[in-house]
Amino acid sequence: MAYKNRRTDHKVGFWEMWRDVFRYSLNKGQFIPALVAFIIAISILKMPSEDVSKLIFEILAKLESGYLIGYAVGIFSLIGWYTHSRWQRRLIAREMQRIGLEKSQLQNEKLNGKIKSSQ
Predict the structure, then answer these.
(1) 98 vs 11, 61, 64, 115, CA distance in Å?
(2) Is the full-model pTM beyond 0.70?
């Protein structure tokens, strides 16, 4: 009842967004990559616009010439590893759930329903 007159509408700005990103990354164990992304974003925002365009063109030129191909392969490998491990975790969780349900059904059949559920 004390919260009846409390305002729930508020604007989410740039710093609130980063606060939420850091909080979520701490919960998921991804704080260091989020911090690096934040530092890169701030440094790009603080650069003059001419330097940002030079930086982008320089990165694209090095990608075309093959100097950064190792970094690109590394990043794609990391993304592939992450998606594959996520897929495997989901697959294993489904299989464990299926096995648990099958075990419970067999126990109920063998014990004529005398076993109680743990849920």
Answers:
(1) 44, 52, 49, 19
(2) no
Rg, Å, the chain Cα set: 25
Contact 25, 33 (CB under 8 A): yes
Residue 107: CA count within 13 A, CB half-sphere:
11
Per residue of the chain (119 residues), what is the pLDDT tens digit?
455 556 666 778 888 887 888 888 888 878 888 788 889 889 888 999 889 989 889 988 888 888 888 888 999 999 999 899 999 999 999 999 999 999 988 888 888 866 666 66
For the chain, what is the HEC assignment? CCCCCCCCCCCCCHHHHHHHHHHHHHHHCCHHHHHHHHHHHHHHHHCCHHHHHHHHHHHHHHHHHCCCHHHHHHHHHHHHHHHHHHHHHHHHHHHHHHHHHHHHHHHHHHCCCCCCCCC
CA dist., res. 97 & res. 116, Å (int): 18
